Amino acid sequence: MEASDWQTEQFEHSRMHLYAVAFRMLGSAAEAEDAVQEAWLRLNHADTRAVENMRGWLTTVVSRICLDALRARQARHEDLTDDWLHVTCDPGPDPEDEVLLADAVGLALLVVLDTLSPPERLAFVLHDMFGMPFEEVAPIVERSPEATRQLASRARRRVRGAREPQLENMAEQRSVVEAFLKASREGDFEALLEVLDPDVVFRVDAGQTGAPIPAFLKGSRAVAERVLTSGRPFARFGRPAIIDGRAGVVVMVPDHVRSMVAFTISGGRVTEVDLTLDPVKLARVRV
Predict the structure, then answer these.
(1) Rounded to an integer, what distance in angstroms lies between the CA atom of residue 10 and that of residue 15?
(2) Which of 101, 104, 240, 87 is nearest to 178 (CA)?
(3) What 3-state class would DSSP assign to 177?
(4) Please, which pLDDT band fits residue 287 given cuts at 50, 70 and 90?
(5) Which residues contact 48 (CB under 8 A, 6 or more apart)?
(6) Partner of 22 for a Cys bridge, out of 12, 32, 190, 202, CB 3.0 to 4.6 A?
């Protein structure tokens, strides 16, 4: 195998890992993809003949790219909340899928991570979330291993202090999502009411170019009526998904994302429904 072929093979084997690191660092699907692509370009221009651990080398490269991006963002005071669209469709209750679901990054954690300084965020993500030794993280953040340990410790305290209470586990949330889909597909108003909390809120993000529809509803009956009136024709195309770490549904018609719904679930019922119809955001969704 030629060196270039070996590099390509190693990169492809590490691609999802690199994307996961970049997404947790940047909180943006689009920027994470850009970081991974930049790592690929750097790999093509680097002499890696002496590299024994290509996965580790690539992780270091993408981490430095992310660190530069975070510093630039900090200088621009950017707010990337609207770009936090990370969708992982769930094709079925396969054990490997359950591991992926459990590893999903929630919006709440991304918000907390965004309050950290770039070195704190990198130290926390690489060590606490990916198990990289401090000795390997230190050169990336240009600190000693002990100073890097302190960075991660400060970040850890802040994350723990802001962590939201645990809701139902993903298996329980999945059953609620499936009940929601079943009632929507069958047009069963009463069954839908059983899934919805009496005070459920329903929000719509149609964007600047989306259809002009009411953006907010409250109450299970009003929400159920909206779902069955507007959503039933598309319910059969819905698939359970993880959206920004929340249980939800992605509607594919036929080969593109038409809409996505993120749920907040508590006590076995849906308390919040966030429907995204904004074509600009949907165009950036990874499925």
Answers:
(1) 9
(2) 240
(3) helix
(4) low
(5) 3, 7, 54, 57
(6) 32
